Amino acid sequence: MSQTILVSACLLGLPTRHDGRSKTSPEVLQYLREKNLQPVPVCPEQLAGLPTPRLPCSFHSGDGTDLLTGSGRLYRSDGREMSAPFLQGAEMTLTIARLTGSQAALFKDGSPSCGVHGICRRQQRVVGQGVTTALLRRSGLLVYSEADL
Ligand code: SF4
User: Fold this and answer.
1) pTM
2) Best mutation site among 12, 24, 45 for ligand 1 pocket (most ligand atoms within 8 Å of CB)
3) pLDDT tens digits for 30-74?
4) What's the domain range around 55?
């Protein structure tokens, strides 16, 4: 049986992004085939119960690591704080990792949930990781992005 890996649903072609679109990555699909990995599609923001399409969110302070410790803050573009649902989406994604025995995740970089090397803070791209990435890494999973392939 092939090994499972969590994959950002939008990279697999599912229209889960805040604008209702996907971000299909042929490189990711080819990588999964070549490595004989069984993708488990996850969208932490949909798992948190957020609608699609939805308003974009970005960090006002810190990154996903800081959100886990209570020192970061994440807001929607209309000014509503969204830290709690993003934490919930991260927890749900970790639950799916455990249910499927997944030890790794291949995530879409730049997202406030899935970011691996970078996130958006106050509309600027900065170094940091998303909330779900931070929680999965803290729980021992290997998390990498489409840019690492
Ligand atoms: S939360 Fe992750 S999986 Fe969902 S749309 Fe954003 S980058 Fe893709």
Assistant:
1) 0.98
2) 45
3) 999 999 999 999 999 999 999 999 999 999 999 999 999 999 999
4) 4-148
